[in-house]
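Notes continue from the previous slide.

Worked example: a multi-chain complex. Inputs as given:
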Amino acid sequence: MNANNIQELKAIVGSQWVATEKEDLICYGYDATPGFFNLPEAVVQPGSKEEVAAILKLANREKFPVYTRGSGTNLSAGSVPAQGGVVLSTARMNKIFAIDPENWTAVVEPGVIVSELNAAVEKYGLIYPPDPGTVTTASIGGTVAENSGGLRGLKYGVTKHYVTGVEVALADGSVVEYGGGNVKAPGYDMVMLFTGSEGTLGVLTKITVRLVPAPVTRRSMIATFADLAGAGRSIAEIISNKIIPATLEIMDNYTIRTVESFAKLGLPVEAEAIILAEVDGDADTVEADAVKMEKILRENGGEVRVANSAQERDQIWAARRAALPSLAKLRPSTFCEDATVPRDKVPDMVRIVTEIAARNKVEIGTFGHAGDGNLHPTIVTDLRDAAEMERVYAAMDEIFKTALRLGGTLSGEHGIGLGKLKYMPDQFGAEGMAVMRSIKLALDPNNILNPGKLVGEVH
Amino acid sequence: MNANNIQELKAIVGSQWVATEKEDLICYGYDATPGFFNLPEAVVQPGSKEEVAAILKLANREKFPVYTRGSGTNLSAGSVPAQGGVVLSTARMNKIFAIDPENWTAVVEPGVIVSELNAAVEKYGLIYPPDPGTVTTASIGGTVAENSGGLRGLKYGVTKHYVTGVEVALADGSVVEYGGGNVKAPGYDMVMLFTGSEGTLGVLTKITVRLVPAPVTRRSMIATFADLAGAGRSIAEIISNKIIPATLEIMDNYTIRTVESFAKLGLPVEAEAIILAEVDGDADTVEADAVKMEKILRENGGEVRVANSAQERDQIWAARRAALPSLAKLRPSTFCEDATVPRDKVPDMVRIVTEIAARNKVEIGTFGHAGDGNLHPTIVTDLRDAAEMERVYAAMDEIFKTALRLGGTLSGEHGIGLGKLKYMPDQFGAEGMAVMRSIKLALDPNNILNPGKLVGEVH
């Protein structure tokens, strides 16, 4: 980039929306992933799709990289400006254009915060189900680009199950629109192609999502297991009894001990695992499912506590929500991964991760979404300790290769970014990667959009 | 194609699986869409993915078209070999590889018939929800390629909501695999890109689908409306009361009269519309929703009959199932379209289609999936009557343009194929089409896969 480029950016968005001072740039040089940092050359904050399109047209002509950034909560270095260029922040594009309570849809700009959309649709008795841990800070655009999940994924699915329309500014500065309020639509599924594409194919400028009725009621419980196998059998039996909890979470012993030492919630520090579960829906179904689920948990050795008030429910979920923050307090650096395995492999995966931690002499707490196999082995370490970091990366290699060996995937909800890029050929093979790269090149021939991420280098 | 090509095809699959006699070719020259016919040069029936890959490699080298064909039930001329070349039938690739009752998945070859999969998973208390009208004849591969819907779409969604993994032979003869049993996966969503791509990007050789628990019970009802507006209000109120019927269908007066004259089911031939609905799920929810739904239908002027036995239920659905066959008996040619509009525009669309029929002096019966706005305006006519056909095509133009004007889409579940190709730029614009064509060219640079369909000519 040269001084002219900066001037042109200022002409597009107004000079107050272009930052080039080092103290500003530093804030946009990293995201929530440890170990990745690089200064961008400028940060630009467009206020409309026309401005986004003009920025891309300029970048495409001058061939500088554009890194779209929502709230920077990314856990796979997906929003780090690794090759310089411009960070395009969607923070100003935060309008809710429309909520349609008849057709259960909402149309939003990418910078709307997920929890703000939920607050806005609540009065119609509707919810937008995807609820990543960062729901109060993450932008919808970021969650669509990363296909984020969350605690309710087992019953409600992930972000892709709710996106029905996208307006996208492409690398050449044209703006296209696919889908809309209809669930059914013909043509290549461009809506799904852009969803989860991690900012490598275009910049989302408008998103249409599907809403669903809020559940009438819900029931939460927590079960303590002396042995992991009992927790595993419980998960299998809950599902095989055709109960679909909204949330079905697991925490391993390391995580339990860590949460307890910080949050003092009275968790059983000797337990090998705890399961936290919630069923929601109509009153009768919830009641029946909760009774069945409690019985299954007990029969498999679980000590069960059912929440009998909103306060007791909050206590249960406070324990789950404390998992990542508590682990993060242990050491200076936290790698929260999201290796995903088939549901019936969850106990194997938890056990193997514990073995990997011991073998490599690193500290790993594992918790996560047992119901859909999406675990969060969380490595706590210190980036400044080179010897330990070598063991951390070795452990990470083993974790991801184990997930794939068990029939799983590299990422359930955090994306690939740069963090997991090197494992991609293990999952997709050379030919599978080549096809994805051919799509990247078809849509972004100059490789200006989040270059080097997800599909790696394409030239 | 030359004689050598035919010999090479025989070498790949065995000579008994290559047909070149005219009487064989004729059977593969058309599908269920009137007005489209062309002879292929050969029909080839591979028995494995290796054979499919070898056929594509040959076709790519020799640059002849390949038209993948399931059971030929397509309603948009998607499987017609319009430019000669080879029809690739998946009929022999009909193995169910695996059913996993723990993880609720099934892995099948593309030639498996949809109802056969349902029969195979029934004993585990599971269902595969997509149920196009052709469920007993359509192949899973065809329904994935077309992203087929069906009667249960409102609650259960369409085929794309159940496909979690695909193995695909590409134009160059390589075989790639994306997704699998996990709902969560990183990378470009290639599974969704191939789903609904109408055979233009690759040939499906293996498909993984998600299964769901069979509903415990269900309740059906039929409601007769003297005026269409009452039916429309009912649909809106059912949804705004947060009831999600598995099935919520509408039939207009023309369809009612036609069904009654053929099937003698005691339908009210004076009614402007009937609504047929079914709620399914747990016993208590079904009971509560059925009571609420009946009340809404009555309050809006509906005369309601609730099925109190399996036999009465069958009677209700026999009326709906008789719609297309009855209309098809009226005249020699039947165009069953699937223009889709937002749910709240269904009454407008039904009324406008009736006006279009009158204005163009053609006969149109409209029925379909009111709950998701996916209607089937069905034009009955005679292809041999050139003057009438001119009016038919004029009416079709008006129908599709009306659907788009009301915020809808060209196709809810039948695909674009050749039948609706000319309307695609109206929905996607020149730039939207260009992006889809760039993806087609990235994956199929020689344009051998179902050329000319869905995205039109690409060179």
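Summary box: The CA atoms of residues 186 and 217 of chain B lie 37 Å apart. The first helix of chain B runs from residue 3 to 13.
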